[in-house]
């Protein structure tokens, strides 16, 4: 299993001082976190895209290009690129450039986005939400395969034998589909044969299995090899040596994150110790606790899902960077080696080894699953 980190670079108010972080410091910390992740051997680092004043990054490709200069091995991805409101040609050019700068380490996680701000900002009609994504995803995939393209769609000017440059080092830029919890998005990713990045905020682990089953079943029905139907689980996380101390320390920061950064807008959230214990307890997808608890949870998810990648979002809620750094080191040095050893040889390779879907296609609870409603 590949293991890594992702960040949304939120500018949360410090729950203790009431001071909001500035964008310069946040981006600096993001680059330092990626550099440290590379040094401790993690495989992937993702940067999110938002177009609000309470987030520092609106252009992941620029930040990833900066990270490419301070890292050597780690793969660099968006998490996610809001493709519905973007020009696929420019997206491809930006990430192709990151690929060149990084020596072939760029990826894209494309999604529809959970916030609405990009649509009016870039003159895109929100009523075309799904059609925009389908058409632009189709164009983005074609751009990655050819140096010249002739193309016509409904939401962008036509291309006539257009030269698409620069070309990446990789033969094709890897494109993942970012999925929140909607069955339709999972089916789309599977039908296209694209890898799926599933955002999981918490709730019972068993609640995400139907989505993964739908994805694989749709992919196999469309004729895609199971080996190409890769799954990434992306979750909030924080870890330390002592589970109870971790929860007691982290609760205020997580509470602040839920109050300020979630799609419902800014509203005060109060979590009692018992509520937070329940949210982070055994069998839940919220990875907050000791390193051993994180190992146990990731392996429990692996038993259910046989996924290929796990990405943790650690730097949330204005968590001090020294604490973020400690957690990254624990993740890379204590958790990752165990997970790699345990998952190295027993991944399923045939359809018979994957249990059939157990869901009728109904969506899981939005509060439990969706970070990026793709």
TrEMBL record:
Residues 1-303 form the Luciferase-like domain. Residues 342-374 are annotated as: Disordered. InterPro entries: Bact_Lucif_Oxidored, Luciferase-like_dom, Luciferase-like_sf. The keyword NADP does not apply. The keyword Chaperone does not apply. Keywords: Monooxygenase, Oxidoreductase. Transmembrane segments: none annotated. One of its GO terms (cellular component) is cytosol. Residues 363-374 have a biased composition (Acidic residues). It holds the Pfam family Bac_luciferase. GO terms for molecular function: monooxygenase activity; oxidoreductase activity, acting on paired donors, with incorporation or reduction of molecular oxygen. This is LLM class flavin-dependent oxidoreductase.
